[in-house]
TrEMBL record:
CDD domains: NodN (cd03450), QOR1 (cd08241). InterPro entries: ADH-like_C, ADH-like_N, ER, GroES-like_sf, HotDog_dom_sf, MaoC-like_dom, NAD(P)-bd_dom_sf, NodN-like. Pfam families: ADH_N, ADH_zinc_N, MaoC_dehydratas. SMART domains: PKS_ER (SM00829). It comes from the Bacteria. The lineage of its organism: Bacteria, Pseudomonadati, Bacteroidota, Cytophagia, Cytophagales. Residues 10-322 form the Enoyl reductase (ER) domain. Residues 327-345 have a biased composition (Basic and acidic residues). Residues 327-364 are annotated as: Disordered. It comes from Aquiflexum gelatinilyticum. GO terms for molecular function: oxidoreductase activity. This is Zinc-binding dehydrogenase.
Amino acid sequence: MKAILCTHHGLPETLTYTDIVDPVLEEKEVLIRVKACAVNFPDVLLIQDKYQFKPTLPFSPGGEVSGVIEKTGAGVKHLKEGQRVLALCGWGGFAEKVKVGADRVFPIPPQMDYMTAASTLYTFGTAYHALKDRAKIQPGETLLVLGASGGVGLAAVELGKVMGAIVFAAASTAEKLAVCKEKGADHLINYESENIKERIKILTDGKGVDVVLDVVGGRYAEPALRGMAWKGRYLVVGFAAGEIPKLPFNLALLKGCDIMGVFWGRFSTEEQKQNQQNIMDLVGMIQTGKIRQHIHKVYSLEESPQALRDMMDRKVVGKAMVAVEEAKEESKEARDEKRETRDGSIKYQDASIKSIEEESSEEGERMYRSVEDLKKQVGKSLGTSSWITVSQEVIQKFAEATEDFQWIHIDTEKAAALLPGGKNLAHGYLTLSLVPKLIYEILPLEGVKMALNYGVNKVRFPSPVYSGDQIRLKATLTNMEESPDGNTKLFIQAEMESNHADKPVCVAELITLVRF
C-alpha cells in the first residue's frame, strides 16, 4: 500500500511517498481502509520528535481518519468488516490503510460523509472538552480565543456561540479574522497590530474576559492573562507559536483565576464515558447544522507533506484535509487538471469533497439539504434502516427509565418458565422509542437549523418484540405541510419489522418538524 513515511525526524520536506506492507493486526485492533485524514498541529510536532508521544521510526503521521473497516482482530466484537468509521489513531493515517485499537474507533452516522467525519472530531472534541468540561462556560460569559482561525480555534469560536458566550476572536490577519466573523465572533482582535490587553479592556468596559482559550502560546499569552476578569479561567490548549510561555503566576493570585490544562487525547482515554457523551453531543450539533467544519484545502495523499508545511507556516484557516482514496483512484493528470486555479496556485476544490460524498451516495445513502429535496421524495420510500438488537439490557434500562417493572419485561427466570419462547418482552413503547434513531438513518438531513420529532398518529403493535430480537424500520414520506414561520411538517408512514415475526412489530404515522 501507499503511505507517507517519516524515516528520520525533521521537517515535512524529509517525508517520503512510498510503498509499505499492510499493517499486521493484533487481537483488539481493526484495519481501516482510509478515505480521508485530517491534518493537525500534533502531526507537525510528531515528525520533528517534539510531541509528548514518540512513535517508533519509521511511521506515518496523521492521527484522525475516516474510512471503512477492512478487517477486525479476533477480540473485536462491537465492530464489523465493511462498517463506516472514524478513528483517532494518533499516527499512521497518511496511508491507504491504518490499524487502530478498537476502543479508538467510532461508527459514522449514516448521514455523515467521510470528509466531515475525519475533519471534526479532533478540533471540535478538543474545543468542546475545553469549554464544557474544563471552563464550564456559561451563557453570557465572555470568551477570548487566541489563534481563532486555526482548527481548534475556529471550532471554539463556533461552539462558544452555540453555548451562549460572547466571543472575542484573536488572529494575525484581516483575512483570518473575516472567517472568524463568518463563524459568529462578536469582536475581532488582530494581535499582530493591536494590544490584546488594551483591546480587551475597551471591549469589556474594564472587566476583562471570563475565559481565554489559548492554542498559540508565545508572546500573546501574558497580555491575554493580564486581560482576564476576576475568577477567570485560562485554558492552555497548545503552543502553535512554537514557544511555551513563562507566565508570571502573581497574576493568577491577583485575579483569583484558574490556569487549566486541556489535553483532549488523555481525557478521551481516562474519562471514556464522558468523552462518548461529548461525541454524541457534537454529532447532534452537526446533524442539526449548529456546527460545521471550515475546510481550508484538500490535498492528495502524495501532497500531504505540503499540508504539513502549510500548517507550519500558519497558512491554514480552519482544517486542512487529505483525501486518501481519491489520490489512489485518480491519475496524476486528472488531479492536476482539477487543482489548477486562476492564480496558478495548486489547490483542491470542492470536487475532492464531492467525490467522497458521491461515493457515500453510491453506497445507498441520500442527503436532504432543502425543502425542495424533500418535496421530490413525497410519495416515495425513504428506504430501510439497518438492523438493531433489542437486548435484555436495553429492556432493563427502559424499565428503569419509565419505572415500569412488570415481570414480563425484567424477570428473566419467570419469563423462561411462563412466556412462549422463554424470553422477556420489550415494552411496545420501547419499540416506538427506537424510531428516532432509525428514522434519521434513512432521512439524513444536512444544514437544518432544527429537526424535531413532533408526534405520532395511529400507533399499533401487531407483534411482540422479544429479548434478543433484531428490528429495523421501513418508511415512506407520504406528505408535507409548510407553515409561514418557516417550519415544515413531514408525515412519514413507518413500519418496524422483526427478524422473528411475520407481522410488523410497530406501525405508525410519524410527524417530524424541520427547519432549514
